């Protein structure tokens, strides 16, 4: 495939979903949105006259492969699952055993046709598409890290699918050379597998919510993330139980996806702690805009996560002007290098978490000062145009280094 003179040809291997892509693919429009950072990154690269971006992504709910272009963005949507049906194979383990061979083969052929200057693998934790990078040779490859499946503490390593995902993730970390990182702990973790790896700093793009008018507060606390132990939902519920002794009417809003077993466990915990009147479940909210409109109804945002790079929950809360409390873990401390933008609590210290919640809820001035300081920081640090410029700078450095070594 040819592109304009002096334009960088970049391949992204990633996944994403929103209403626009559903319409382009002739889907029913009822699919849930995911990976919004990829969509935002694509939109920023659309503005670049010197970039041709080729996006390769797996899709289950399409009948066959579909390719189309929009100016300098070229989409290659690859059908996975049962041919001519909008379904996965009934036995997903077969796909894991085969390392998504059919998808990976198609990626390899597309890369040869495109002949890019660089390939960007967006994330190492998703075997659905990340394993495809292991069969590609002869091109500079940058892996932009979003998280690590191997560090998710609620995963049962005895499950075949989890073990397989961890194996592929660690193989990528060992084999490849160039990595885009967002936090110091990510750099250190990669170095444990690959001491010779070269790191490039970047940021994922984030949605800037358009919430202009003051919104009446309906909740004291909001939690919006996966409802798992790793994200700290149980710790937060226990902290609310402690805080209830000093603030009996405390109200927690929980937004996010969970499964029946996990929800039953949470409901039992809530009932045992006598919190039924203090907690509201909103479930999964399908679009970011609708979710943000719910988030700003809370006075504070709390995410006691046990492992994360820089969570979207925290950055989005900062951008929305909702002050944040979180555990001092992963890449989150990096947010406070130039001042306190997030209140940090020792990981697992539920009593301290409850105290910080009560203190912040009891001090409107502190809420406002922290929210304003954090928003100012986030608007500067997580500017999407600047984030993509950092990525392009990394692309050029990787290409140069690759050419020098070959």
CATH class of the largest domain: Alpha Beta
* Overall geometric form: globular
Could you state the CATH homologous superfamily of the largest domain?
Glycogen Phosphorylase B
User: SSE order, as H and E?
Assistant: EHHEEEHHEHEHEHEEHEHEHEHEEHHH
Structural class: alpha/beta
Share of residues in strands: 15-25%
On the 0 to 100 scale, the average pLDDT is 89
CATH domain topology of the largest domain = Rossmann fold
Low-confidence stretches: none
CATH architectural type of the largest domain: 3-Layer(aba) Sandwich
Can you give keywords for this protein?
eight-stranded mixed beta sheet, 2 domains, 14 helices, six-stranded parallel beta sheet, 406 residues, 18% strand, Rossmann fold, alpha/beta
Give an overview in words.
The chain has 2 domains: 8-205 and 384-405, Rossmann fold (3-Layer(aba) Sandwich), CATH 3.40.50; 219-381, Rossmann fold (3-Layer(aba) Sandwich). 39% of the residues lie in helices and 18% in strands. It has 14 helices and 14 strands. It has helices at 19-24, 36-46, 92-97, 101-114, 127-130, 160-175, 184-193, 233-243, 260-272, 288-295, 312-320, 350-361, 364-381, 384-405, and strands spanning 8-13, 51-59, 66-70, 73-79, 118-122, 141-144, 178-181, 198-201, 219-224, 252-255, 279-283, 298-303, 324-327, 343-345. An 8-stranded mixed beta sheet has the order 3-4-2-1-5-6-7-8, with helices on both faces. Strands 11-10-9-12-13-14 form a 6-stranded parallel beta sheet, sandwiched between helices.
